[in-house]
Amino acid sequence: MGTSSEVSKLHFLLFPFMAHGHMIPTLDMAKLFATKGAKSTILTTPLNSKLFFEKPIKSFNQENPGLEDISIEILNFPCTELGLPEGCENSDFIFSSPDLAKGDLSQKFLLAMKYFEEPLEKVLETTKPDCLVGNMFFPWATKVAEKFGVPRLVFHGTGCFSICASHCIRLHKPYENVASSSELFVIPDLPGDVVITEEQVIEKEEESVMGKFMKGIRESERESFGVLVNSFYELEPDYSDFLKRFVAKRAWLIGPLSLGNRKFEEKAGRGKKASIDEHECLKWLDSKKCESVVYLSFGTMSSFNNEQLIEIAAGLEMSGHDFVWVVNKNGSQGEKEEWLPEGFEEKTKGKGLIIRGWAPQVLILDHQALGGFVTHCGWNSLLEGVAAGLPMVTWPVGAEQFYNEKLVTQVLKTGVSVGVKKLMQVVGDFVSREKVERAVKEVMVGEERRKRAKEFAEMAKNAVKEGGSSEIELNRLMEELKLVKL
Ligand code: UDP
């Protein structure tokens, strides 16, 4: 056994899924662990290390000499041997390539993660961490960790509400008792009488390849040490309790993780390099009135077609509100932009800012000029919007985003739905300009909604402070892990 200080010092091995929505909170988590005196090693591939981790980790270690270092351990990922295109080390590769069959390839990419099983064994054997935080998409990781006596925590990347809603739907299959796929039903057992339709849920195909994969995920989760959630108790108390009682063996809510980024550079440097000068962007926002600008972003995986983008542009113009709109329309740069109505930028000059590519999202959301957030309801974005105190227009596209929408519109009551009917996974169900106009206008004027959104932001900030709910849960987790170590 080591000295008492070695024993009390924990070492986390963090293994994120290779997508922005997982890499970004993983880095935030490593920083959080460092502030608690724990060492973290992030396990990732060469390209992802360069894209996400090298620079910010170097700065973090240099600027915090008193804290435990964060380090990176590289694993190769032989894309072509696994039947993937060369360089396909991140789901962004799939979603930003216009000519790829995104649905098929993303499934193949997900299943290819199994490749890491053996390399992970070797890393665990040599590194001997005190805990493995492995992404949900690595169901085999629980067994591998067990072999070396390492407790495995599961990180879903989403909140308690969607994990619980999905659990209840899988268990009761309520969609089997509706007359049509667009008929609303109440999610059985789930607190709050939340309603949804069959065409918005993803759990229907249990016998498909993905259905079986998801089943494996749930089994591995039950056998794991517990679940780590990027959320905070006050945001979803009923669902946090439900998760701990009925779904996961144990769970710890330790977020919002994005709030650990306090410095300008940290906020500006999250994810990719921004496609706009951050200072210019803030200067533009500085020139706007308080709470007057609406921000639109649809995350890293949704890709709308030209017809939909034209509709968004027209709806925005009709709403009359100032806006910042992030369009990750890769592949069309330098070409004639057929996704913008003729003369749109001239007409909206001074009123609108279009960011083509990557936006410094947290910097923008935190600006006082922001008055509303049109979001695809990816969990990171949603929580960043909550932490910024913004009312939202919900525009879910795929994955668990429809559940996240219901949390915002039916439980928190801080959002307005744009009215998307069905889950489409990548491309998005069509929404007319009139719907965009209506939702943007509505979200910008609702005072009650705004007041509630600000209250949640206050709670979020308190949760991560000393003595706050997330801080307490993290302390508890670390104490438990220290006991296991002993
Ligand atoms: N993000 C960003 N700039 C962009 C687009 C996304 O900083 O232009 C960040 C955003 O702040 C969030 C993450 O990327 O932290 C996206 O995760 P989310 O869960 O919201 O959506 P996903 O892309 O996984 O669907």
From TrEMBL:
It is an enzyme of class 2 (transferase). It holds the Pfam family UDPGT. Keywords: Glycosyltransferase, Transferase. Transmembrane segments: none annotated. Its EC number is 2.4.1.-. SUPFAM superfamilies: UDP-Glycosyltransferase/glycogen phosphorylase (SSF53756). PANTHER family: GLYCOSYLTRANSFERASE, SCOPOLETIN GLUCOSYLTRANSFERASE-LIKE. Belongs to the UDP-glycosyltransferase family. This is Glycosyltransferase. It comes from Camelina sativa. The gene is LOC104716733.
